Amino acid sequence: MTSILVGEVDGGVAKNGKIDYDSGAEDPQAERTSVAFVDEDEDEKELSSNSVNAVETSVGVGTGKHIDWIGLGEDDTEDGVAPTFVDHFSLGVPSSTFRFRNTRYVLYDGGEDQFLLEDRPSDLRAGNAQNGNDVNENSAFDKKNGRHVITMKRAHTDTFGLRLLRATYTLAALLVLGFLFVFCFQVILFLFLNMPADSGGTRSDPNVNTGAIIGAILSIPIFLYGFASIMSIGVTFVEDTWSGHVLFRSILHCPVVLMEWGTFILFLGIPGLTLAATLLAKNDTWWEQTAKCLVCCIFFFMIVFAFSVVCCEVSSCARLIRLHKNPNAVGGRGPWWREWARISQQAILLRQRGCYSGERSQQYIVHENEEPPYSLIEGKEPIKEKEGIYSALTRLSCCGSVVETFDPPNRSYTMEEIKGVTPFVTKQNWSLERMWCQDYNARRAFVNSGPSALRSGQVNSSLACAVVGSVLIVLILCGVLVWLEMSALVLVLSLVLVILCCLSPMVLSFLRLYREYYSVHRNALNDPSFSKKDEEMAKEQGGKNDKVTMSVWETVRFSQPRNWACWTLFSFEVIFLFLWPLIALYASGNWKVGTIFLFLGGISEIRIYFNAGAVLKEIGTLDTIQVTSRGASLREDGSVSQREAANRNSASGRVWSILSRAETDKEKVLRKKARISEIVSRISHSKKTYRFMWVFALFVIVIFLMVYSAFNQEEFEYKIKGTTLASNFSYPAQVGAQYPTCQLTKSFTLPGQKSTALMDFSFLAGTAFAGPEEATSLLDTWFGTGKIVDEYKFVNDYRVATDTVGGVSFKLYSFSEYEGYGVISIRGSETLLDWVVDVQLWGAAALAQLVRAFIPLGWIWTPIFDELVYVVNSVESANLKRVAYYKTTTQFINDVLSGEYGGGKYHTLRVTGASLGGGLAIITGAQTGAYTVAISGLNAMLSRQTFDPPVTKEQLDTRVFNVIPDRDPIAHIDDRAQLFQETQCRAPKNDFWGCHSMWRSVCELAYQCGSEGRPILCWCVTKYGYPKPEPTENSTMAWEEACASDYESS
C-alpha cells in the first residue's frame, strides 16, 4: 500500500526547495498548514492533518541524511516561489503534477481514490498586495499567514464496471490460489503415503529402505518453505489483481501500454473470444470451455508474476550487496561471472549470519524526542524482551570458536525500520474494531496530546473493549466446549492456552497505552526535555505541545557465526536438505514428487540465499541508501551516463520511450526502492509466509502420525459388535413421511423380488463389519435361516490366489434359492489405515469443496472442478495407485463375472457398503457396471477422473445410488450423482459424527418406511433414541426383555 507525507508551510516561504523559517515569529494567529496521508500494512487508510513533525521530512531538509525523495521543483507561480512536494518510495509510483485554472495540482493515486493537493497563493496575501501592503518575502504578513494555501481533496475514480471487471479477475485468481493450496496438500500427502509403498516396510515387503525414508523426511523443510512461499506469492497476486496489477507493473518494469494490453489479452481477450466462439458454434459446454480458458490464462499470468518476483528478489539482493560493500560503486568491475561469484559469496554469508546469529529483541515505549538506538538511552528500560534458546546458547564460552561476539551489540533492523513509515493513531482515525484487530507487536504511534490527540474516552474505551472482548471470547469458548460435551480437563487446558497466548498480550498492550496516555497528560507541561521553542509553541497552541507515544521493537545482534561456520552450515543445508532428499525420491521411483522437489527446492535455495531482507537488516532503512541500476545511474549533477544516453537515442530506445511514460532518473530510483520494499515486506519476509508454514507443518504432523500409526497397526480382525435383533416387533410406515425410495425397483432389486427395501441394503452394508459367525447369525435372523450365505471361504481363497490379502475387507453373499446371484458388501473405515485411504482417494475433492465454499459464487466453477481435481491429484505415484483399495474389489468382480475365478458361478452381482465401503462400492460399481447401493458413502463426481480406469458421469448417474443422512460429514464429501436419497438424522446437533452410522440408517429407514416384517435393531431405542416398536401378534415378551442385554450395557 502507500504512504504520503507531504507539504507543510508554517509561517515561512519555500524557495529553491527549502522553507525559510524565522524563529522569532510568535504571532498566536500564525496558521500552520499540513497534510499527512498514511496507508500502510495493507490494512489501513488514514487521513490526518496537523502533523507537527512533517516539515523536515516533507521538504527534505534538516534530516542530516541523504534521502532519495523526488522533488517537483520550483513551480512557476506568480510570486516565483512555491512549496516543494516530495514523494516517498512507499508510494510505489511517483505523483503527477500539472497546472489547471492557475492552480498547481499534485495528484496521488490511492487505488480506487485520487488525492489532489491544490497549491495556490493565499487569497489574503493577494488582497494585501492589491492594497499596496508589504508582501515581500520576509514580511510580517507572510510569517503570520503564509504565502500559499494547500488544499487536499479526495476524488473517487472507481466505477461499477471497473469493480465488476476486477471482481471477475479476482474470483478466477482465488480459484487458482485455492487449487494451489490443494496441490500443496496433495504433494505432502503423497510424500508420506509413498514412503511405505516405495521404500518397503509394508506387511508384504518387510525390508525397509531406511535411506529413502530419511530422505523423504529431510525433504520436509524445503517443501514447507517452498509451499508457504507459493501461497504467499499467490495471495499477493490476488491482492494485486484486485488493485489493478500495481505491484506487477512495478516488478515487471515494462511499458505501461504493453502491460495493460497484456493484461487485457490474457484476462479478457482470450477468454472473451473463447466464449464467443463456443456460443457461435452452439457448443453446450460453452461455459465449461470459457472457464477453463480463463483459469489457464490467469494461471499463466500468476506463473509470470512468481518468476518476476524471484528475479526481482535476486537482482535486488545483488544491487544492495554492491551498495553495502561499496556504496560509491556504480557497477561491477571485471568479468560478469567474477562479479556474480563475489555477490553470491556475500549473499550466502549475510543470510547465514542473519539466520544463525544470537539476537535479542526489546520492546520500548518511546516519545517523539527520543531517537534510536533506544537501548543506549540512559534510564530507558524495555517493557518486554525476547531471546530464543539458540541465542542464549551462543553466549556460552564453549561456543567461542564457532561464534564471534559484539560488545556493544550491533543493530539488526526490523521490517518496520526498513520501510521507514509508522502508522499514527489519532482521534480522527481511531475505532474500536481497528484497535481490537491491530497487530500488537507492530510499530505504531499514538498521538497523546495536541489538536489530533486521542481523547480520554477513546483510550478508556480501548482498554474496556480489550477486557470485555477477552471475557466474551472466554465465554464463547466455554460455551462451544460445553456444547461439544468436552471433558473438564480439555476445557481448562483450552482456556489457559487461549488466555496466556492470545488474550493476555492484547490486554497488557492496551493497559500500557492507558498508562502512557495519562502519564503524558500529567507531565506534558512539566517535561524537562522541552526546549524554549517547544514552550513557545505550546503557548501558541493553547498550552499544550503535541506528544506522541510509539511502541517499537528494537533488535540487537550480540553474536554471529564465524565465516568457516557459515560455510559449514551452508554445505550441510545443501547436502542434507536438498541433494539427499532429491536422490532418495528419484531412487525410490517417486519421480513425480522428486521432480516437484527439484524445481521447488532449486528456486527456494535461490530465494533463501539471495535474500534482500538479510542485506537490509544490515543496512537499515531504504531512506538512507542510493539505489541505482546498471546503465541508468545518476551523476551528482543530475545527468546520465554516456551508455544510458546512447540507449535512449537508439531506435529501440525511442520505441520503448514511446510505449512507456517519460520517467526521470529520480522517478526510476523511487520505483526501484518501492519495488524492493514491496517485495521484501509483502513476500520475502511477509507474515503470510510464516503463517502458511505453520499450516503446512500442522498437515505434516497429522499426516505423518496417521501414516506411521496406520502401517504399524496390527492387521484387522473381525470383532463381535454386540448387535441384537428383536423379532416379533415392528414399525408401521409413517403416513405421509415415507421416503420415495423406500423400495428400490428395476436393476437395484435383489433376486426373486419385484422391489427391494432400501433397509435391506443398509443392513447388508452393516454386516460387512461383523465376523463370519456373527454375520451368519444376523443374516439368518434378518432374512431367514440359510437364505443368504456368507461366502467367506470363496473370497479368502481368491485373495490368497491373487496375492491381495490385506487392505480392503469385503464379503460375498450368495442366495441359496437363486443361483448365480450375489451381493458384494465392502467394509467401511475401521482401522487407521482405512482413514488414510479415505484421505488418499478423496482428500483433493474434499479440499476442492472447501475452496468452492469459501470463494464467492464458487458454484459457477463446478463444471471444471473434476478436471482441476484430476490435475492436483496427478502427483500420485504409480506404486500408490497399484495398492488402492478399489483395485482389489474391481478386479474381484471382473474376475468372478468373467469366469476367470469361480468357474462362472455368478452372473449377476450387486455392490453395497457403508462409509469408506460405500465410497469404494460407488467406484467399483461404476467401473464394473454392477448396480450399487451405498450407505453414507463418499461420492465420486469430482474425483471420477482420478481413478484407474476413470469413471464417467453417465456411469455414476445410472449405476450408483447413495443414501445421504442429514449432517453426515462423510456422505457429503465430493459431489453426488443423480441417484441419491437424503434421510433425516435424529442425533443431537452437537454430536458431529452421530449421523455417520449405517445402523442409525437402518433404524431411520425401518421407522420411516416401516419394518415390513424384518426384526428391529435394539440399538434403535437404546442407542439412537427412536420410539419403542409395536409388538406383533406372535410376540411373547416385552421390548425390554427382548433387548435386555442392550439395556444392561447401556
Judged by helices, strands and strand pairing, the structural class is alpha+beta
Unreliable stretches covering 5 or more consecutive residues: 1-80, 200-204, 524-544, 629-645, 654-659
Mean pLDDT: 80
Number of strands: 30
Biggest sheet, spatial arrangement of strands: 22-23-24-25-26-27-28
Principal-axes geometry comes out as elongated
Number of helices: 36
Summed up, what is this model?
This protein has 1050 residues and is α+β, with helices and mostly antiparallel strands. The protein is built from 36 helices and 30 strands. Strands 22-23-24-25-26-27-28 form a seven-stranded mixed sheet, sandwiched between helices.
Output the keywords.
alpha+beta, seven-stranded mixed β-sheet, elongated
Provide an overview of this structure.
- By secondary structure, this protein is α+β, with helices and mostly antiparallel strands.
- It is 49% helix and 15% strand.
- The strands form 9 sheets. The protein has a 7-stranded mixed beta sheet, with helices on both faces. Strands 12, 13, 14, 15, 16 and 17 form a 6-stranded mixed beta sheet that branches. It has a 4-stranded antiparallel beta sheet with strand order 8-9-10-11.
- Strand 25, helix 31 and strand 26 form a beta-alpha-beta unit.
- Helix 9 packs across helix 10.
- The longest helix is centred in the first third of the chain and has 40 residues.
- It is elongated and about 105 Å long.
- The two termini are 62 Å apart.
